[in-house]
Design a protein that fits this description.
Length: 992
């Protein structure tokens, strides 16, 4: 039992608090307690258990009244220095030098949250201290420059220059509004909630952000950032008494209870559904036909009703998101759009249910609505498919029990879920922590009419609904930019010479402020760990190579709580080069197409009833410090309870050997849907797309990645869609040929992450599976894993292209890439420290703080020698590239005292020692095995990180120089910006 569970019930020595209620949270083996701070009125929720990955969050209810983004700008600015920690960027100082497992802040439609997490008690307390001081005593009242930097400001180089807007949030939201899907979701919420805070953009609409005054900004903070309006959340293994008494003494006791008007009003239901038409920009190269979004949107009760919220998650899966779901399929069969999207949003007081037809046309709206209505009416009359409901419930239940959120601490996600009820009802902090009893209730309601009644009441007969048409318009971005330019020009012309000079002076003053470093005294006020606080040992690898029935198996023996994570990996070395583009299409098709014994809806149901999911994917294992060697594999992955491993393999066998790859109707649907989803990714994650493209100029593995997942693959799919009728036989033939080549027993390796019980279950099941595969195994001398999974021998036409890709967005993603092994350099753990320094110092200060970009990333220690610098939602292009060019000089002249080096080393170790879920432990071990990485390598790397010096960082300058001088540039950006700087590129072209 954790320290806090032992102490909490007695509530010893906590006179500043009263306990409001407590609950046993059996699902997560926790005790939940809710307190109220007597003097300040602060709410405190504790989830006490033995998880060492502790989480702290302080949140505030922050309903905005307009779209100036004030809540979002405050989220950025309070972390830019405070009373006790006056350095200009404590957030970044913490990122540089703490062992945090999470460090961020988030603005939602009605709340702002400041979460931190760490496994180190001393570090955890430091993080809490800095965040509490930031929210209650920020320097925003004394440094207007913080508001101008993070929010918005006028920028004027001299009285004759063009007047511009700049600011981090301003540019972040320009990037967000560059995605049609983001514009759609914003328009949907505005259409449903015209009279409440949900009807405006809490993140800020770039058209309105400059309307926010400094005085209004401060007033918002004064009103909402008070303990009486706060929600404090503590999770994990800690001394609750010590933590709460510290919170009282250091902060809460200095405040008196205050009545804060932050209630979220309910939107009154409409008399009938409303039709809304809106526009989004399209690039000149795109076609306005088949590019409209149609959406049906409805408000569904309140998020306080957690059972109903869970029920609608089930319905969204059963009706729309599961493969072959009836409503989605009905819309596809009716030819409405090329992709059907859906969402159920319950992170606001009044949840919303949305059905979207993407790549449709405006004149299809009536048919879209008619198909939705007729299909739902039929489902209500005939009843929902029992297995579809059970599959949806079991899938959600599996994920709930597994509580695997990847790199994010599960306590963080629990906290975010809890805010979904606690924020709106003080008595319901833990409602979302009792999932098991909700799942049992929802299972009991199958075949009772419960789900059908929900459909009838909320989706068919609901007047609180809207029909939204988001239409494309070519040149809209250009029109908006021209209007903005004209507006700023008119404003500038209205100013006197003295007023212009004042803006020039303000511009220069802000730059001087940004360039001036925090003083040594300010920086040293931020608490810092020591090297001794770092764990001495690296996390171990778990690789045991063995053979079952002469089949190579890699067992990663770790505690998994009865879940087996299994990968069936197939060799791709025999795949002809001309079929490589079809590999990812095959991975997408498998499991989403009819098989001999199941329709793809039935197959999906079977998978979700019996397993935690089955997926096909392409995995690439890069060879350690060898950019010319990589091993691509085709993986069929699944997660399943040990007792169901036999069922997992039965379903994988069905998928591999009995999929109907000749179903051209379904193939065409999949191609259109996959193309649509990749286009969405390219709009929202341009930095990753640009980096992948630039690496395709350098190495064979980079080209392979681009060929199977990047811009090349997108264009391959676009061609298949356009020429489908004439090429459908070729497509079927290619997929069948790939299946015959790949899925053989003599090219397969099994990776299993499980305890010994799970491995033993595998030994019983595997022979039946391997016997179903074609090919033979050498029974006299089984192959090793590395003999089975061979390095690729493709010969792609790798060449430097240096492209500028134009799209309708307003921001850029600027990438420079290189391979330092090809340039003759060797790896060293110090390169990971260099990444921390560059990410949170040089690039942060120049690309983000001064340049106004929302983000910047870099890598100098890629396993195979890959290195890059890239910006994210960046208003600049040439200026950012110039920053990359000068990065070498910064590194060569890098200066740091002992305290700063300690800080950079600790910050680096926080990424090295990130807590791993069982699945992540298995994946890390597998990657190490396939790359040739040993524990000696890991320990040497660790030792090099811990001993990094200023001089060693300087010695890395030639590698930084190589990233720029290798001259591999790829930019995704605004059409006008790309064309204006066409001399930077060998070729400029449309992204879509």
């Amino acid at each position: 039992m954790s320290r806090c569970v032992k102490q909490s019930k007695e509530l010893l020595h906590m006179p500043a608090y009263q306990i409001e209620y407590e609950e046993e949270l059996n699902d997560s083996k926790s005790l939940g307690l809710v307190f109220r701070h007597k003097k300040s009125g602060a709410r405190i929720c504790v989830v006490s258990n033995e998880d060492e990955n502790k989480v702290f969050t302080i949140g505030f209810r922050t309903p905005p009244k307009n779209s100036t983004g004030v809540a979002h700008i405050i989220e950025h600015t309070v972390l830019c220095g405070s009373k006790e920690f006056p350095a200009k960027d404590p957030f970044i100082e913490l990122a540089k030098g703490s062992l945090n497992t999470f460090l961020n802040a988030m603005t939602y439609s009605d709340k702002t949250m400041y979460p931190v997490a760490s496994c180190n008690e001393k570090d955890f307390q430091n993080l809490i201290h800095v965040y509490m001081d930031a929210v209650f005593h920020p320097n925003i009242y004394y440094r207007r420059e913080i508001f101008e930097q993070e929010g918005w400001h006028y920028e004027l180089e001299d009285v004759n220059s063009e007047l511009k807007y700049n600011g981090v949030v301003y540019n972040e939201m320009k990037g967000a509004f560059s995605s049609p899907e983001q514009q759609l979701f914003r328009a949907i919420q505005a259409s449903l909630f015209p009279d409440t805070p949900y009807g405006v953009e809490s993140g800020g609409d770039p058209d309105y952000i400059p309307d926010l005054s400094y005085e209004e900004f401060l007033e918002f903070h004064k009103k909402f950032y008070h303990p009486s309006n706060s929600y404090i959340y503590l999770y994990g293994d800690m001394d609750v008494e010590e933590k709460l008494n510290w919170l009282d003494e250091a902060y809460l006791s200095t405040f008196d209870t205050l009545k804060v008007d932050s209630e979220i009003p309910m939107q009154k239901a409409f008399d009938g559904p409303k039709k809304i038409i809106s526009l989004y920009p399209l690039s000149d190269s795109e076609n306005e036909v088949d590019n409209t979004y149609l959406s049906y949107n409805a408000v569904i009760g309140t998020s306080i009703d957690t059972t109903q919220c869970m029920a609608f998650q089930i319905l969204e899966a059963a009706l729309l998101s599961a493969p072959g779901a009836p409503l989605k399929q009905a819309l596809i069969d009716a030819g409405i759009g090329k992709d059907i999207l859906s969402s159920y949003e319950n992170e606001i007081l009044q949840p919303t249910f949305t059905i979207i037809a993407k790549n449709a046309n405006e004149e299809q709206l009536e048919k879209f609505l008619s198909v939705i209505t007729s299909t739902l009416e039929k489902i209500v009359k005939d009843g929902l498919n029992e297995k579809s409901l059970l599959a949806a419930i079991n899938n959600l239940e599996f994920r709930y029990r597994e509580a695997d959120f990847g790199q994010f601490p599960k306590g963080l996600l629990f906290g975010i879920q809890m805010f979904g009820s606690w924020l709106y009802d003080d008595t319901k902090a833990f409602d979302y922590m009792h999932g098991n009893r909700v799942f049992q209730f929802l299972k009991s309601k199958i075949n009772t009419g419960y789900y059908e009644d929900l459909i009838k009441n909320y989706l068919l007969n609901n007047t609180h609904a809207t029909y939204l048409v988001l239409k494309p318009k070519k040149g809209l971005t250009g029109e908006k930019e021209a209007k903005l330019k004209e507006k700023l020009e008119q404003y500038k012309n209205s100013l006197s010479l003295e007023e212009k000079e004042a803006i020039v002076a303000s511009t220069n003053h802000l730059k001087e402020y940004q360039e001036a470093p925090s003083t040594k005294e300010e920086l040293e006020k931020i608490p810092l760990l020591t090297i001794d606080d770092i764990k001495k040992d690296a996390q171990p690898l778990h690789n045991k190579e063995c053979s079952l029935e002469n089949l190579p198996v890699l067992h990663h023996e770790v505690f998994t709580n009865g879940i087996a994570y299994i990968k069936c990996m197939f060799d791709l070395s025999k795949v002809p080069e001309e079929l490589v583009p079809y590999l990812n299409l095959l991975a997408t098709v498998l499991g989403y197409i009819d098989t001999e014994n199941y329709s793809f809806l039935e197959l999906s149901n079977e998978i979700n009833i019996h397993t935690g999911g089955i997926s096909a994917e392409l995995i690439t294992f890069n060879k350690k410090m060898d950019p010319d060697t990589y091993t691509p594999v085709f993986s069929m992955s699944g997660k399943v309870l040990y007792s169901k491993i036999d069922k997992l393999f039965e379903l994988i066998r069905e998928i591999l050997h009995h999929s109907n790859l000749g179903d051209t109707k379904r193939l065409f649907e999949i191609i259109r849907e996959v193309k649509s989803r990749i286009q969405m990714r390219m709009n929202s994650a341009g930095h990753s797309v640009a980096v992948d493209r630039a690496f395709s100029y350098i190495t064979q593995s980079g080209y392979y990645t681009e060929e199977t997942k990047g811009i090349r693959y997108f264009r391959f799919l676009a061609t298949l869609e356009k020429e489908f009728e004439s090429r459908k036989e070729e497509i079927v033939s290619s997929l069948r040929k790939l299946s015959e080549i790949i899925f053989t027993k003599d090219g397969m390796v099994i990776s299993i992450t499980a305890e010994q019980d799970g491995f033993e279950q595998l030994t019983k099941t595997l022979p039946g599976f391997t016997n179903s595969l074609s090919g033979t195994l050498d029974t006299s001398n089984g192959k090793t894993i590395k003999e089975t999974l061979k390095a690729a021998n493709f010969n792609f036409p790798v060449e430097k292209l240096n492209e500028g890709f134009m799209y309708s967005g307003q921001v850029q993603y600027v990438a420079r890439c290189a391979n330092f092994v090809n340039a003759g350099f060797k790896t060293n753990g110090a390169l990971k420290v260099l990444r921390t320094i560059m990410s949170y110092d040089y690039l942060w200060n120049n690309v983000r703080v001064k340049g106004g970009a929302y983000g910047c990333m870099c890598q100098f220690a890629g396993l195979d020698g890959s290195a890059y610098m890239v910006s994210y939602r960046d208003p600049n292009l040439t200026e950012t590239d110039e920053t990359y060019r000068k990065a070498y000089e910064y590194t060569e002249n890098f200066t740091s005292d002992e305290r700063d080096m300690t800080k950079y080393i600790i910050g680096t170790m926080s990424t090295v020692d990130t807590p791993l879920t069982p699945l992540m432990r298995g994946s890390r071990s597998l990657n190490a095995y396939m790359s040739g990485t040993t524990m000696d390598d890991i320990n040497r790397d660790r030792s090099e990180i811990l001993s990094t010096t200023q001089n060693e960082i300087r010695m890395m300058a030639p590698i930084v120089k190589e990233v720029y001088n290798a001259d591999n540039l790829c930019v995704i950006g605004n059409e006008e910006k790309i064309k204006k700087n066409e001399q930077m590129f060998q070729e400029i072209k449309a992204l879509f």
